[in-house]
Amino acid sequence: MRISKATLNNGWAWSTGLGLIVFAALGGMDMWLKALTGVSTTDLQGFSSAAQFRLAFHAWAPEPYAVRAGFALGLDYLLMPLYAISFFLSGVIVAESFTPGKSRFRRYVLMAAMVAPVGALLDAAENALHLAMLLGGAEDGLVRIATAISSAKTVAVTIGMALLVGALVAKIGMRKARARPVVEP
Questions:
Q1: Is the pLDDT of residue 102 over 70?
Q2: What is residue 131's predicted lDDT score, i.e. its pLDDT?
Q3: Which pLDDT value is given to residue 138?
Q4: DSSP string, the chain
Q5: What is the pLDDT of residue 172?
Q6: What phi and psi values does residue 60 have, to the nearest 5 degrees?
Q7: Measured between alpha carbons, how far is residue 11 from residues 21, 73, 85, 91 in Å?
Q8: pLDDT value at residue 1
């Protein structure tokens, strides 16, 4: 399937911009939750035992805190497709900008772009496990699974961030190239 360069650039700009807005809102809400209770939803990623989850859930037990925590976990589901699209399109932009023609490196960059949607699916599974433990009780087995999924998601998001930085470099480089006057000998 082929898409036009304008569609690629517009999709990348929209998904990246909206993703940053949702990420900022989520970060603000998470910082607010941590200031109120001492535990944020992001902290769940680093927990390694059911006892830690139980303490966090106990801190969120009063209704206003539970609503905030649940909303933050739910809002993360809005962020997932945005960063998956942004990171994937970033990989396509990097491949188009830095790997002209067919090459092994181009295939590697495009394979790395496929990691972003997998990361979003892992993020969804991780959040589902966190919500299941929040509603049904934490168990060490579920915590181990959530920790493993969280680690894999972190790797995928790191690859996506590298692709996003690469796309930004490509965009800045293209702007500078267009701004330079052509000097004829």
A1: yes
A2: 87
A3: 86
A4: ----HHHHHHHHHHHHHHHHHHHHHHHHHHHHHHHHHS--TGGGGG--SHHHHHHHHHHT-SHHHHHHHHHHHHHHHHHHHHHHHHHHHHHHHHHHHH--SS-HHHHHHHHHHTHHHHHHHHHHHHHHHHHHHHHH---HHHHHHHHHHHHHHHHHHHHHHHHHHHHHHHHHHHHHHHHSPPPP-
A5: 86
A6: -90, 5
A7: 15, 25, 8, 13
A8: 65
Crossing angle for the helix pair 104-113 and 140-179, to the nearest 10 degrees: 130
Per residue in 56-88, pLDDT (tens digit) is 989 988 888 988 988 998 899 999 999 999 999
Q: Could you give the CA distance from residue 25 to residue 71 in angstroms, rounded to a whole number?
A: 11
Take residue 10 and report the two structure tokens written for it: 């517009």
pTM: 0.86
Encode 121-133 in three state secondary structure: HHHHHHHHHHHHH
d(CA 102, CA 84) in angstroms, rounded, equals 25
pLDDT of residue 70: 87
In whole numbers, what is the pLDDT of the chain averaged over residues?
89
